[in-house]
Amino acid sequence: MFENLTNKFEEVFSSLKKAPSLDENQVDVGLRGIRQALLEADVSLEVAKDFIEKVKPKALGQEIIRSTSPGDMVVKIVYDELVNLLGEKNNDVNLNAVPPVPMMLVGLQGSGKTTTTAKLARYLENIKKKKVMMVSLDIYRPAAQEQLKSLGEQNNILTLPIIEGQQPSDICQRAISAANLNGADIILFDTAGRTQIDLQMMSEIKQIENTIKPAETFLVADSLTGQVAASVAKEFNNTVNLSGIILTRADGDARGGAAVSMKFVSQVPIKFLGIGEKIENLEVFHPDRIANRILGMGDIVSLVEKAAQDLGEENIKKQRKI
Ligand SMILES: Nc1nc2c(ncn2[C@@H]2O[C@H](COP(=O)(O)OP(=O)(O)OP(=O)(O)O)[C@@H](O)[C@H]2O)c(=O)[nH]1
Ligand SMILES: [Mg+2]
User: Fold this and answer.
1) CA-to-CA distance for 137 and 157, rounded, in angstroms?
2) Ligand 1 centroid, distance to 121 Cα (angstroms)
3) Ligand 2 (ion): which residues have CB within 5 A?
4) Which domains does the chain have, with CATH numbers?
5) What are the tens digits of pLDDT across the range 94-119?
6) Which residue of 59, 292, 293, 308 shows the fewest CB atoms closer than 10 Å?
């Protein structure tokens, strides 16, 4: 996952870290390498530019350049900014609503909504200890409702019985009564896939949103589509109030551009990563851990701490000299 980006960052960092001292020119070369790495990961020019603009003044700070391990210091600055860019901290699933808590999953055709609905149900049952009911509102694609039903059967998750020919708004009403009757804590609504320009479908999800008043509206987006995924999120967010992104196919994404751009472009945080086709292949998105993974340094946390400590000692020494 995100191997290309990791390799590029490693290249830049190894030359920065080798240097016993750093001057402005060396920092500049390093930052250009980072910018290039981001662009090759399919991050937009705007995101890459903003990132470098934030890192640069910090990396050129006199205490960094003069410190005993300037390379490590720059790594720490890049790490901190990357965590910021990815979303600072994980915002957990919002369960703060009257049960049955409604949540819906929206997204483009084939992005992974139905599979992710089942993954999320399993997560909420196993980790959050909630009883979940899954409901398909996809009345358009043949066998779409059966796909969710069979995922429910295979994994022992409750689904709303299918009534042929029922419209989404009626299915929503029926789901709420059935969930109450069955003592379900959460209802997950899987919606029909849509192409971006399909205004009729977009107005349908707006109507569903108005009917169920979801506590969470997740956009399911395909990581492999890079910066397109981020602009799709921005567009969906103009129609419905997205509360989180679930980025699927992260397992096959060597570049990582969607993960990096998503928050900046769409203003919506990533909450989960889909990392495979199986029901258990869902991972909570922790910006700090992902930044760690992207920078390709298992020891980054201790490195960061050490760098911060060195910086502190340096300052103390300086003060003593004065
Ligand atoms: N490798 C990988 N495959 C995934 C992931 N998530 C979903 N898929 C696969 O993507 C394909 C499409 O998934 P669906 O869940 O049917 O997608 P959808 O968005 O519901 O599709 P429509 O309802 O037709 O719009 C399936 O073959 C899934 O197994 C993931 O995180 N990793
Ligand atoms: Mg589907």
Assistant:
1) 17
2) 15
3) 113-114
4) 3-89+291-321 (1.20.120.140), 101-285 (3.40.50.300)
5) 999 999 999 999 999 999 999 999 99
6) 308
